[in-house]
Design brief:
Helices cover 22% and strands 29% of the residues. It has 216 residues and is of the alpha+beta class. Strands 1, 2, 3, 4, 5, 6, 7, 8, 9, 10 and 11 form an 11-stranded mixed beta sheet that branches. α1 crosses α3. It is elongated. The chain starts with a helix and ends with a strand.
């Protein structure tokens, strides 16, 4: 294989698109396609190194100097808010702001397609209203999204003023209301419901795209 073939083969094995690579390099999708097709000769070492970093592979493999493709374990840093979000009755916590942010490193292999996304923040859940899905103390990765982009069944972090919680989201269009539903073995937990015309203080902080559960 030539270098273009190796780039394409590695990209596809990492489940990355041409656009993913292009966005990382700051070039067009067509340019990356030309790299892979061999239409751009004599790729700069700096470009090869950047591609290798993104694809988590030894640059020497892409250049044909070694025959084995070795994974390079890499990590990315994310904003981490130590105040736990309630998986139970919404509770008062300090507002999620840059004033109380820390940093946490998580391997890209765990974050998957969300690896390196600077918009994602990490926090913890506390409580038992979501214990069929995630346990008390689980880490969650949250990607900011708009209310109108949510789908039924998404897990979201939301707040009413400074009362934060994490629940499953459902848009009950028939009754014109948003429903935030627990998922617990304990039947004491009930839906948290907001009528369409009474959502002034409701804020969606993001969709949970990953949760890390510690098992006993």
């Amino acid at each position: 294989m030539n270098i273009g073939d190796r780039i394409k083969e590695t990209r596809e094995s990492r489940n990355r698109t041409l656009l993913d690579v292009a966005n990382f390099l700051g070039v067009t999708e067509a340019t990356v396609q030309r790299y892979e097709s061999g239409n751009i000769k004599n790729l700069k070492l700096d470009t090869i190194s950047k591609i290798a970093t993104f694809l988590k592979v030894d640059p020497a493999y892409l250049m044909g100097w070694k025959n084995t493709k070795e994974n390079i374990t890499s990590k990315s840093q994310y904003n981490y808010f130590p105040a736990a979000i309630s998986a139970g009755k919404p509770i008062n916590v300090e507002a999620i702001t840059d004033n109380n942010v820390e940093k946490i490193s998580i391997p890209d292999s765990i974050m998957g397609k969300n690896a390196g996304n600077k918009n994602i923040f990490i926090t913890k859940v506390c409580g038992e209203s979501m214990n069929k899905t995630m346990q008390d103390g689980s880490l969650i990765a949250v990607r900011p999204v708009a209310l109108d982009s949510l789908k039924d069944g998404d897990i979201v972090v939301y707040s009413n003023e400074y009362e934060y919680s994490v629940k499953y989201f459902y848009d009950d269009k028939e009754n014109k209301r948003y429903v935030f539903r627990p998922h617990s073995f304990d039947r004491v937990f009930a839906d948290d419901i907001y009528e369409y015309d009474k959502v002034e203080s409701l804020q969606i902080h993001g969709k949970v795209v990953l949760y890390i559960v510690e098992l006993d």
